[in-house]
Amino acid sequence: MMRNVYIAGTGSTTFGKHAGRSIESLAVDACAQAIVESGIDRARIGAVYLGNFISGPLNGKEVLAGLVAEQLGLHGIPCTKVEGACASGGIALRHACLMVAAGFCDAVLVVGVETMTHASTPEVTSALNCAMDNEYDGLSGLTFPGLFGLAWRSHAKQYGTTREDIAAVVIKNKAHGLKNPLAQMGADLTLEQVCASAMIADPLQLFDCCPPSDGAAAVVVCAKELLSDSPHTPQIRVMASVQTSGSARISQHPDLCSFEATVHAAQQAYKQSGLQASDIDLVELHDCFSIAEIIDSEDLGLVPKGEGGRWAAQGRTGMQGDIVINPSGGLLAKGHPVGATGVGQIVEVVWQLRGEHANQVAGASIGMTHNLGGTGVACTVHILGRDA
Amino acid sequence: MTEPALTVFRCMSCQTLTQLQPVVCAHCLQRKFQKEDVPATGVLASWTTVRKPPLRFKAEGAYQVAVVDLDNGMRICARLLSTPTDQLGDRVVQVTENLHQTQTPTFKVATHG
Questions:
Q1: Could you list the active site residues of A?
Q2: Nearest CA-CA distance, residue A192 and chain B, Å
Q3: A200, B52: Cβ pair inside 8 Å?
């Protein structure tokens, strides 16, 4: 019999530029906030999972989980860095949930962290390309913006999605970012400004791309009996925690504008939670590029297949919409410190469900997160809810 | 003039085709493959222009990457010598004039629509 898992504490740095800060210091900062907020004695924390993607190539640092734990006074417990490209943070959370659910630990510290802004664009592009199958697709010179340029053209041909539809995602998320104090680059943008930005991977333009970011986010997950130490109500329960994989090779994707890993993760998450898509009040999903939000919203079953662009253009994914997508500003505006993103999404949803968010979704009681790595090679979906 | 051909790998156990030689066949885990030439013609599934290349392609500047559905049913990643009128669904054929690229086949549109 698996135990229920709760999110007891949250912490986050701002996402953006943290010049001169070490990657460990950002992680420690977020973790200390989460531990203190949880009210849980550190002696009860049985493990640390740290999500990070490219601390090796960009910082020359590894064994981050142990380095961070030591600076938090956590000694002798298993400390594990997990890596799944942009899904590293979501995977870290999933492993923590498994440990608590199975009864191996009563509380687990989860942190995601990345620093990127000190590196040049070609260095960052090369480091991110570690998430490609470089003995296969990577030989062609394909990049991640390129992958989503391919997806855009495919979605446009299959469903008639336009530049204006996709710009609506950018304009919405940048506006949400303006209301989020953690966000790197909220903005009040016009269609003309989006369309005038530099071409990156046709038809993808600069404002269609998330920025490189520094940042860290952390949560403490625990079993129900430890919640008595936590001052926060309502209590936030993990109703589904799912991880899937898909092909690292774009040539193995039968549909260029769908990720099977997301489709399967969503199906499993609905089954695990006993919920359906219409029960979800808000979602923080993986909008690494504007077109990705449209694809993800369809793959998650939140928007009918092929309608993602039109729903965005009609405001049906905005704050007053049928389904609120990325009230944080998403990766496009909040920023994408790669390994931190999946945990940052959880922090955002917890604050929404507590009713404490700076860009609050009215009456939010069920929230979803979606974290996608590489070419859809790794995916996590979590559903959180207020405990009745 | 001979038709352009692309060399792929066929698993001698289960007949599965792969673009590059794997260590083992992901379908049956056997290890014997034979090279096979297949027609280097197909349909343009999608394409993009990469304008921010990673370090190892930086010297090339901008270049086109495509997904091509070969006539034998295989889907591959390739380079594309594009023109402004290229459309998804166009017929494409492999060419040998892309001197920058030796690791990936290069195609161009043969006929539109």
A1: 86, 336
A2: 21
A3: yes
